[in-house]
Amino acid sequence: MPDASHVAGIAVPDSTLAREATDLVRTVTSDLIYHHSRRVFLFGSLLGRERGLECDPELLYVGAMFHDLGLGEEFRTSGRRFEVDGAEEAARFLRSRAVPEDAVRRVWTAIALHTTPGVPEFMEPEVALVTAGVEYDVLGIDYERVSADDRAEITALHPRPDFKRRILAAFTEGIAPKPETTFGNVKADVLAHFVPGFQRGDFVTVIENSPWPE
Question: Whole-prediction pTM value?
Answer without folding.
Answer: 0.95
